[in-house]
Amino acid sequence: MQITPELVEACRRGDAGAFERFVRQTNRSIYTVVLRIVGNPDDAADVTQDVYIRIWRSIRGFRGDANIATWVHRIATNAALTHLKKRGRLAAPMEEEQMAERLATVDDEDQRLSAAEVERAVERLPDAYRPLIVLKDMYGMTCEEIAEQMGMTEGAVKVRLFRARRKLAEDLTQGGVVVPMRKKKVQP
Amino acid sequence: MNTTEACRDFTPYLMAAPDEVDDLAAARLAEHIGTCTACRAESAQYSRLRDSLSLAGAREAEPPADLVPAVLARATRERRHVIPMLPVPQVELARVIQDNREVIAQVAGVAIVAAGAAWALWRGVRAYRTAPARG
Ligand SMILES: [Zn+2]
Which value does ipTM take for this structure? Predict the structure, then answer.
C-alpha cells in the first residue's frame, strides 16, 4: 500500500478527487484483508464499503505522524471482526475437537506448500479461527495487537492460535497437501 | 524413554512462532528438538506452514469491478449529508459557494437590508432618548 503524505493531506482537507485516488490505490489490499477475515466475497465487498466510509469520516482526525497504512489496516480489520461478531461467529467453538492423530512428520526439507492451497485451507477454517491465522501468520501482527483488536487476553489468543494452526495442518494433511500421514514412532 | 509422552508437552511450542514462546520454553524446546527427530521434523513442518502463510499473505485478491464505483457513490452521498466541520476544507468551501451562489447572494442581500433597517431604527431610538425633555 503506497500512499503519499500529500495524498493523505489532500484527503484530510476533504478533497474528493484525492479521496478517489486514495480508494483506487488502496482498495485491493483493503478488500483482501477483509475477505480473508470474513471469508466470503459478498460480505467482503459490503464491509470494504463501510471501511471507506469510516475512513472518509475520520481521516480529518488522522495524525500526520502516524503510519497511514497501519491506520487503514486497523480500521479494515476492526470492521471485518465486527462483522463476524455481529453474526455471532467469532465465539470459540463449543467443543474443541478431539486431539486428532498428530501431524505427519517429514524429513524432506524441500517439501513445499503451495500458497494457493494454503490460502484455500485458511478460507475453510471456522470463523472463530480464521482471523487469528490471517492476522498473525499472514499479516505478521503480534499476539498483543491481535488481543487488543479482538478484545481477548494475549493468553487466549495464543491458545486459539494453537488450535487454529492444528486445525489448518489437519486440513492440509487430509487434502494431501502436506506429505501423507506417517505414524510417529515411539523411540526406544 | 517414552518419547511420545514427553513430546506431548512440546506440541504447542512446535507450532508456535518464535515471538510467541518465552526464553525458558524456547531453551527447553531447543534441547528436546536436539534429541528428538520426530519433534524436529514436526517443528520444521510448522515453520514451513508459517512461511507459506506469510507468502500467501503477500498475494492480493481481485475486488469485484463495481467496488470502487460503489465506494465513491457512497462517499458522495456522505458528503452531501454531512455538514463540513471546522476547519472547513478550502476545496469543499469553494465548491459549496459555487453550488449555492444564488442563494448566498439573496441571503446576503436580505442581511444587508436588515442590517440597514436595524441601524436606522437604533439611530431613531437613540435620537429620541437623547433629545432634551420638552417642558
Ligand atoms: Zn519429541
Answer: 0.77
Question: Cα separation of A35 and A29, whole Å?
Answer: 10
Nearest to B90 among A13, A113, A184 (CB): A13
Residues of chain A positioned with their CB less than 8 A from the CB of B17: 136-137
| CATH architecture, domain defined by A5-86 | Orthogonal Bundle (1.10)
- How far is the alpha carbon of B55 from chain A, nearest alpha carbon, in Å? 7
Q: How far apart are CA B38 and CA B60, in angstroms?
A: 35
Task: For residue A101, name the pLDDT band (cuts at 50, 70, 90).
Answer: very low
Give the list of residues 6+ apart from residue A167 with CB closer than 8 angstroms, or none: A97, A125, A126, A129
| Helix (H/G/I), strand (E/B), else coil: A182 | coil
Alpha helices in chain B (DSSP H): 3-15, 23-35, 37-58, 67-81, 90-99, 101-130
Q: What range does the domain containing B33 cover?
A: 3-58
The answer to whether B4 faces chain A, any CB pair under 8 Å, is yes
DSSP letter, residue B65? T
**Is B117's Cβ below 8 Å from some Cβ in A?**
no
Quote the pLDDT of residue B6.
82
Q: Which amino acid is at B29?
A: L
- For residue A185, the model assigns a pLDDT of 41
Q: Quick one: fold of A109-174? A: Arc Repressor Mutant, subunit A (1.10.10)
Domain boundaries, chain A: 5-86, 109-174
CB B59 within 8 A of CB A18: no
C-alpha cell at B30: 531447543
Please say whether the beta carbons of A44 and A23 come within 8 A: no
pTM exceeding 0.90: no
